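From: lab user (bench 3)
To: helpdesk
Subject: output format question, protein + iron/sulfur cluster

Hello, I'm new to running complex predictions and I'm not sure whether the block I got back is the full result or only part of it. Here's what I submitted:
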Amino acid sequence: MHVSEDNVIPCRNVDVVPQQQGRMLWLERFFFKYRSYIGLVHFAVFWVFLALLFVPLFLDEVSETDTVFTHFTLLANYTMWGLWFPLVFLSVIFTGRSWCGLLCPMGAASEYINKFGLHLKIPAFIRWEGMPIISFLIITTLGQTVGVRDHPEAIAYVFGSVMLAAIIIGYLYGRNNRVWCRHMCPIGLMLGLFSRLGVVQFFPKRPSHGADQYHESSLCPTMIDLRHKKESRHCIECFKCVHPEAKSSLIVRARAPGEEVENIHSHNPNWAEVWFFFLGTGSALGGFLWLVLPLYQDLRQALGEWFIEHDQFWIGESGPWWLMSVHPERREVYNWLDFMTIVGFMTAVMLVFATAMFLLNLLSSSIAHAGTGKDRRQFWGSYVELAYQYMPVAMVSLLIGLGGKIFELLGLVGLGSNGILTIKLVLFGISLLWSLWLGWRIQTVQAVPLGRKVPGQIVGTLTSLFIAACWWPAIFGI
Ligand code: SF4
Ligand code: SF4
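Helpdesk reply: Thanks, we reran it on our side. This is the complete output you should expect:
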C-alpha cells in the first residue's frame, strides 16, 4: 500500500499536520528495506574502531619524519581527532544522531550483549538525569590528564574503557535496549543536546498529548515512549520504529535547522540539559585553557613552591598511568603537581563559566519575564528555554576547539594559515548570528513584548559574545 498524507490517521494533536511537511518517505522506505544490514555495518565499524585503538600499541615509536601517510599511529590519531570527532559532531546538524544508531560500535556492542545479559532492573542512580553529566566530566578530565589527544596508549585506555563500560552495563541492565546510551554515555548527552539543532526529526504519526515519557519496555532502544515523542535528544536514529506503510509508526521528516530549539517550549526543555550545557562546556573550555594560558603555569609554579616549602616532596613524583600521562619515551611525565593543577584548573574554569552563564541567563530572563505575573515555576521554565539560545555558538566553539586537527588536515591539503583562520572566523560568525536568531525566536514563542524583548536580546547577545571570548584564546591563540 502506498502511504500518502491522506491515509495517515488524523490524531488528537493539532500540531501534527504541519509536522508531516518535509516527510522523507524515500528514506523511511530505504531503511525499512535494508535495516537488517545495519548489524553488518556495526560489525565492520567495530573492528575498524578496535584497530584504530589498539594496533598503534604494537607499532614502533613515531619518528619526527613520519607523517599520516607513513605511520599508522599518526593515521589513527588523525582519524580519531581530525575526522571522527569533528565529523560526528558536525553530523548532528545534518543527520541527527545517525552516528549512534547506524555506526557507533560501543552502543551496538552494548545492545548486542544485552540479548545474553542478566536483564536486571535499571537502578535509580543510573536513571538519575545527572549521570551522563558526571560521566562526561570524568572522561573529559581524565582525557586531559592522560593525554588522550597525543598518546596512543591514552586513546586505547579512554575509549577502550568506555567500550568496556558500555558492554558491562549492557550485560547487566535492561532488556532489549541500550541503558548505556540512554543514561551513561559521556558522548551521547552532548550529541543529543546538539541534535536538537539538526534538520532530521522522527515524529509519531499518531502522537499523544503530554510531555515526553520514559518507557523501559518500549520498542525503542533508548526507551522513548514513541507516542509521546517530541524531543530529539534521546533518539539515536536506529529506524526500528519506522514503518512507511503502518498507521502508527514514526515518520522521518526534514525540518529547518534550529526549528526544535526555536520552539523548545513544546520539545521538553529541561534542567539536566541546561546544567550539562553550562558545566560540560565549561569543563571542555578548561581542558583547552590550561594548555594555552600563562595563568596555568603561574598557578602551577605557586602551588609547587607551597608544597616544597611545606616539605611535601611527593608532589614531584609521578603517579599511575591510568591517572596521568607517563611517557618518558616521549619526554612527557606528569607528576602529582601536574595532575592536581590540571584537575583543579579545569574544575575552577568549569565553575566560573557555569556560574557566569547561570547569572547572565538569569539577567536575560529577568529582563524578559520578571514582573510579568509569572509564578516562580513559570519563570524558571522560561529561564531554561532561553538557555538553549547559546547552543550554536557553544557547539561551534567546541567543534573548532576539540576538532582542531581537522583544520590541520586542511593545511595538509594546501590551505594556508590565513585561509584556515578565515574558515574558523566565518564558522564562528555564523554560529553567533544563529544564537542571536534563536534568542529572538524563543522570546517570540514566549510572547515577550517588544519593550522587554530588545533589552533581553541585548543581554543574550552579550552572553553569546562572552562564550565566544572564553574560547578565543583556545581556538585562535592569544
Ligand atoms: S550514546 Fe554513546 S555509546 Fe551509545 S551510540 Fe551514541 S556515542 Fe555510541
Ligand atoms: S525513536 Fe525510533 S529511531 Fe529513535 S531511537 Fe527510538 S526506535 Fe530508534
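A quick orientation on your result: The chain has two domains: 5-259, 269-306+334-476. Let us know if anything else is unclear.
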